[in-house]
């Protein structure tokens, strides 16, 4: 299989911090399904995705398509998929006995981010059936919780220096705000960090249900952990070092332990 991930600053294996591709990478490694990574520069994502004729899974607020990754191509079945949850459900259905087992064990996933967001690329909840619907709702709420604090990752975002200005200009065009105005510092940043910590407290309460940890259902990872883990990679790659260190210690170190435990599924080819 070929897995299409987003190339950022060199070395790309070190700077990879896009949350949705990380959800897919975790799932691929968990299922132990052989794959190779094709790294796609930010400016080429639309053309690469368009070549596969995969509709955008998200849209900007003005209705225009938001083309992003991951994409997974499986020549064994001829399937090409372009959404992280869709890829995970496909892997579980197509390769049920591979790797570490079931990606979607039934479990209670009651985290809700109860704030309305005016996102520039609204998050669409995937259409799935059965108990996996709880994972889709969890994915939507976790995405919303982290996205609400994404401004914290602007200054340290690991653009490829060779195309940084071009990429910033494109993001500014899409959002309608100059890139330089998206950064946040001082008391405003401190306020957003406190909001971030408080918000993650709702997630921490889910992890506290099982004292054995470090995963939601104890010592066994599931796709729900990969959803959170994907965003933890975003935080590691975009927050200043001292803030990432602080985040790992929030709520008695739950997220630091989770990030470290997920390293067994974080191999990059």
From TrEMBL:
Domain GST N-terminal: 8-99
Gene3D superfamilies for the chain: 1.20.1050.10, Glutaredoxin
The protein's name in its UniProt record: GST N-terminal domain-containing protein
Species this chain originates from: Aspergillus ruber (strain CBS 135680)
